[in-house]
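Q: Structure tokens for this one, please.
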Amino acid sequence: MFKSRLGILTCSASLVFGLAACQKDEPEPLPEQPLLAPGAACDPSVLPVDQTPDEEDDKDPQPICAPGLACEPRAEGDEYVCGTALSIRGRVTDSASGLGVEGALVAALNELGEPVTDVVASDACGDYILPVSVRRNADGSYAESLKWTLAVSASDYQPFPTGLRPALPIDMSDAEPAPAEADDEADTGSSDDGETYEAEMVNNAATNVALISLGADAQGVTISGSLGEGTAGTLVVAESGTTPAPYAIADASGAYTLFNVPAGAVMIRGYRQNVEIEPVEVTVGTADMADVDLRVLTNDPAMLATVSGDLNIVDGGSGTVTSVVLVPASVYNAPLERGPVPLGLRDPPPPAAPDVTGAFSLTGVPSGTYKVLVAFENDMLVRDPDEGIAGTQIPEIVVESGQVVAVPDSFKVTGALGIVGPGKERPEPVEAVPTFTWIDDSSEEGYDLVVFDALGKIAWQTEVPSGNGGNVTLEYGGEALEPGMYYQFRVTSWRLVQDQRRNISRTEDLRGVFVHGEAPPLEECTIDEEAATDGESSSGGESSSSTG
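A: Here is the predicted structure, written as tokens:
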């Protein structure tokens, strides 16, 4: 009360001496923050004044790149320069309904499969804006041409990519001017010289991701935490009694978020080449858990394990070289015979093309239990499906730090059955009743055909009579395909040997994938302004948007 009365007296008294005396008590306007043009040296640690945590910084604001520009590293040296801001934009939707998925986490991965961004969350429409960094020339222009893929996860949905679904490459050569939003000055603006600059974006079919709902299998809570520096791309798994277990990919800062973790005792583990991470045990209830951080024990490759073995290619046909990968047993999907491969646990190292013809070796392997998969990629080869001979099973190995682990049996690899369609090269849309076509195996006496969905459930299986050369075709005869679900048909040829069925060959692990009735994203989406005010999304807080 005293202070308010004093204020009234002070301003009242000022009337005697003039209005200026009262105005002196008002704060002086802050200086404007200088804006830099393309090619100007910049400091990436300097923030816009409206984002600085310390008000004292607002009194002497340091220069930042003008709207539409970003402070990016130069291709040579350790300096930074202003250049056109680039982002990946798209929409995350439910594959069955086409509705946007809010709160989906999106990150960009380089061609090694390593995240090069932190995650951003999709808004109520499912839209996201993901800034990506590109090294620059001295004038701020792009010094490299990059490609990325996306990693997307959300509560109650299957992670992407996973199972039957590969991620499409996103090429920065497809960049175009980003539309300027009425409430977002970051997309366009001018520097102190008055020039106007437009940000750029990549927004196309590869940046829109349709997630598959877990349906009745959706359960559990969300667990988040960090692994620290140097752990980007680590496969973080919530291991318990069920497989495949929930998993996540640590982003560029080492942060992770696990969705759909069931209740009970859970061990959080991390898998990445050349990094040994100490697991953490937690008891999961009904509430989400945050700050579940994991500690790096060592990143010295000499302290980690080496896994070695041998394979033999027999009757490979046009397939002459292959690859070997390790999949943690906790995330291995037995019906699909696959699972996510931790960063770097492949021979040859990614992104090299397959080149293994005999002996193989994987170094820097962290401790854990793994499935060893050979001929997993589209290389015209498959693991020999004849279970009557050695080297045709999928081995499981236990790895301890510092050990050299030898895979017991030499793998047998053979030429694959050729798929004509659907899904010869990539997932393919089909009608309600698809027809499967593959190249006849001339030495067979029959085929087994199985159709799996993306969750590993069998949708249909049947026996097919021997072919007569050329192509073999068969119309789908199972229950109605689920809209928005991805499927794979797998064919195994066989013949009788002493009245016993012996498998000869099979179609490749990543071919024969198809989808029926995937709902397109809604063309228009409007976010309720009041809801947006309560918590703006990381994709810019647009009040309305449309697909690209």
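A few notes: DSSP finds three helices and 43 strands in the chain. The first strand starts at residue 35 and ends at 36.
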